Amino acid sequence: MPSAADRREMILAAMAAAAKIAGRDPAGVQLIAVSKGRSAEEIEPLIAAGQRDFGESRVQEALDKWPPLVARHPDIRLHGIGRLQTNKAEDAVRLFSVIHAVDRTGLVDALVKAADKAGRTPAVYVQVNIGEEEQKGGCAIADAGDLLAKVRASPLPLAGLMAIPPAGVEPGPYFALLAKIARRHDVAGLSMGMSGDFRAAIMLGATAVRIGTALFE
Ligand SMILES: *Cc1c(COP(=O)(O)O)cnc(C)c1O
């Protein structure tokens, strides 16, 4: 059975191979280990293997799990990748170095206020509801420009655009669409691609992939 560290090596190699096929520098793609639902015992071997970027979906779970790990490894960067309620903005700003699910102007306001209070300015990705799905997080494609302008006018550094394509369909066209929206608005970062589709995402321009299952199972 491959260890978590072995799986990480295999994923990094597959990421580099996809980047090379696309004529991209593999160093331009970041691996975010999605550790939601995983225990500290499962996470520690990845930290020991050198992994420093971790993604969590829920603020409360991250608060319960990460402070002791971060105290031992202060160079860890936590990424908030789940839908964020405005009333969790203060906790999110204290915990996360990067927030991937900023999808409405009211949330930007809450994060700016929380950042001011905490003296910390996490970078943010604007999440786009790329498949225009009812239930999904993310702003409408037509609203991405306004939301990007709002972030750019704020003290929060803009990390880029983030999206989760609809389940059960070929994700490539959605990745390509997100990349096109990014070009249109002169945005450099693209958080897209998960365990099942990170190669395609990298070939279409992902600069950060969020991988859970393939790392931990
Ligand atoms: C859970 C999750 C992931 C990781 O998905 P896997 O298929 O387990 O790699 C990536 N992004 C978001 C937003 C998630 O919630």
From TrEMBL:
<dbReference type="InterPro" id="IPR011078">
    <property type="entry name" value="PyrdxlP_homeostasis"/>
</dbReference>
<dbReference type="Pfam" id="PF01168">
    <property type="entry name" value="Ala_racemase_N"/>
</dbReference>
<dbReference type="InterPro" id="IPR001608">
    <property type="entry name" value="Ala_racemase_N"/>
</dbReference>
<protein>
    <submittedName>
        <fullName>YggS family pyridoxal phosphate-dependent enzyme</fullName>
    </submittedName>
</protein>
<keyword id="KW-0663">Pyridoxal phosphate</keyword>
<feature type="domain" description="Alanine racemase N-terminal">
    <location>
        <begin position="28"/>
        <end position="216"/>
    </location>
</feature>
<feature type="modified residue" description="N6-(pyridoxal phosphate)lysine">
    <location>
        <position position="36"/>
    </location>
</feature>
<comment type="similarity">
    <text>Belongs to the pyridoxal phosphate-binding protein YggS/PROSC family.</text>
</comment>
<dbReference type="InterPro" id="IPR029066">
    <property type="entry name" value="PLP-binding_barrel"/>
</dbReference>
<dbReference type="GO" id="GO:0030170">
    <property type="term" value="F:pyridoxal phosphate binding"/>
</dbReference>
